[in-house]
Amino acid sequence: MKPVYPIVLFDLDGTLTESGPGILSCVKETMQRLGVPEPPPEILRTFIGPPLFQSFSQTCGLPDDVSDRAVKLYRSLYETDGLYKNSVYPHTFELLSALRGAGAKLCIATSKPLPQANRVAEIFKLAPLVDFVAGPAGSEERASSKAELITSCVERFSAKPKNAVMIGDTKFDAEGARLAGTDFIGMLHGYGTREEMQEQFSGARFAADFIELERLLLTN
Hints:
By secondary structure, this protein is an alpha/beta fold. Helices cover 45% and strands 13% of the residues. The strands form 2 sheets. It has a 6-stranded parallel beta sheet, sandwiched between helices. Strands 1-8 form a two-stranded antiparallel sheet. Strand 6 (183-187), helix 9 (194-200) and strand 7 form a beta-alpha-beta unit. Helix 3 packs across helix 4, helix 5 runs parallel beside helix 10 (210-217) and helix 8 packs parallel to helix 9 (194-200). 44% of the residues are buried.
């Protein structure tokens, strides 16, 4: 088998890992401790994907200073509890192993802070199967963009964007791929919708699971 793309990038939350239970429980606990009303379920769901500061400030309308406090509190809760509520999606290890065996370079491009992303990759045994992890440093989290993270992965291997594909589950992943110039495949097992992703990347293709995705990424 041969890889369709020499470089394959994956989002983390909602794409490689089912992270919703841990993220949402930590968001709820953060809101409770800060005395902020808990948003309805449809708003809570949007916390999975974009940078946290953006979710607290723009989605929930909290002032910047409160949003900063919320991010710090959330991080401490996630480190001790939420992180361990992750699980990998079915066929994850088989897909990554098949892609690497075919010669593809694999990257994780996530809005999760890099130290935390590396911990998730280590704990859930993803680290040995990927070549590079891109995520914002703590001081860069507010200003981080998915397009910049994708570009850093592509440049890591001195490649052209047209030779890479971003795999993600939200409109932020689709937008990042479009702005970075890569192809995009949306995972429907995650937390975004086909419509939202297609709105950001008109030529997007979609896969319901990793078995279907493998057929899109490997060829005879």
